[in-house]
Amino acid sequence: MSEAESSSPGREIWIEKYRPQTLDDVYGQEDIVDRLESYIAQHDLPHLLFAGPAGIGKTTCATAIAREVYGDDWRGNFLELNASDERGIDVVRDRIKNFARASFGGHDYRIIFLDEADSLTSDAQSALRRTMEQFSDNTRFILSCNYSSKIIDPIQSRCAVFRFSPLSDDAVAGQIRKIANREGIEMTDEGLDALVYAADGDMRRAINSLQAAATTGDVVDEEAVYMITSTARPEEIESMVTAAIDGDFARARSTLDTLLTETGMAGGDIIDQLHRGAWDFGLSQRETVRLMERIGEADYRITEGANEQVQLEALLASLALDE
After folding, report:
1. N or C: which end of the chain has fewer CB atoms below 10 A?
2. CB 292 within 8 A of CB 276
3. What is the mean pLDDT of residues 247-258?
4. Which of 3.40.50.2300, 3.40.190.10, 3.50.30.30, 3.40.50.300 is the CATH number of 29-163?
5. pLDDT given for residue 4 in this prediction
6. Annotated binding site for ATP
């Protein structure tokens, strides 16, 4: 790699530059990759349903399957649609059917990849079910969603369901080290730990954060990562909670205000970090259970549109008031 390439972290989008091209390159989903490779080796690919949170390899696995099945011809035999943009029944009836009907040579079937399929309306899913039946001889569907419960049962029963889990810290750290080495980026151990913590199992977020942090200075360290990702240090979250439980509401509220106004965190992000760290704060089991109950209530209210700061202050106040 040339010096110009390694010194210009903003020239390319790294999540695309380092997107795995084959199933063997996919990090952290070994069991799923083994099953998918078995389907391909036996030339017996069923309809597939990939379910799981963002940034863990669902889309990457779908395109890698197409590359391995079709080789250089994969783009002509692989149709990718995003259901969140194209939600209506007309898309299912028109675009998918037209692609499924089109003639092709040299392959037994074509692949249609429907990303964010849980955004499809109920009518569109019913139309999709009928299309899957009609073109089962020459078309395979890969559906991707965050919540499989939003996919109607008739579709789920026609698919082999793969539930992707958030990536392990080791898998995220391994890929981040590899990219940092290839880009010639100096990174501290604390910086790597911060990237892994901020990513929370999301490889896409980890790589984006690394690229952003690499533009801020010569070294990717803990301070740069937390600043770029607008993430609170775990000790800050713990200090805020323990201050509230100890009855020092003023100190807890001051920490919260700093996170919201100076760090620039959203209320939902603070809720997520509270939830992730609840069992690591060194609280008694009773105190942790109380905290979890308050987190659940605040999360619901914020999701429904309530004022974030008011709800988070109310959470801290309830912890301070409880004996």
Report:
1. C
2. no
3. 93
4. 3.40.50.300
5. 41
6. 52-59
Distances (CA, A) of 317 to 8, 246, 258, 308, 312: 47, 11, 17, 14, 9
Local confidence band at 1 (pLDDT 50, 70, 90 cut-offs): very low
Q: Look at residues 126, 135, 113 and name the one whose alpha carbon lies nearest to residue 155.
A: 126
What is the per-residue burial (b if ≥16 Cβ within 10 Å, else e) of 95-108?
A: ebbebbeeeeeeee
Candidates 1.20.272.10, 1.10.530.10, 3.40.50.2300, 1.10.510.10; correct CATH number of 234-321?
Answer: 1.20.272.10
Answer yes or no: is pLDDT of 154 > 80. yes
pLDDT at residue 36 greater than cutoff 80: yes
Task: Give yes or no for a contact between 87 and 119, defined as CB atoms under 8 angstroms apart.
Answer: yes
What Rg do the C-alpha atoms of the chain give, in angstroms?
23
Query: What pTM was estimated for this model as a whole?
Result: 0.83
Domain assignments of the chain as residue spans, ordered by start: 29-163, 168-229, 234-321
What ranges make up the beta strands (E) of 53-123?
A: 78-82, 110-115
Please name the CATH architecture into which domain 168-229 falls: Orthogonal Bundle (1.10)
The three-state secondary structure class of 118 is helix
Joined tokens for residue 62: 């779908």
In b/e form, how buried is each residue of 39-49, taking b as 16+ CB within 10 angstroms?
beeeeebebbb
Annotated binding site: 52-59
Is pLDDT above 80 for 117? yes
Contact 197, 276 (CB under 8 A): no
The amino acid at residue 231 is: T
Dig out the tokens for 305 from the structure: 């549109």
**For residues 37 and 12, what is the distance between their CA atoms, to the nearest angstrom?**
30
Q: Is the pLDDT of residue 208 over 50?
A: yes
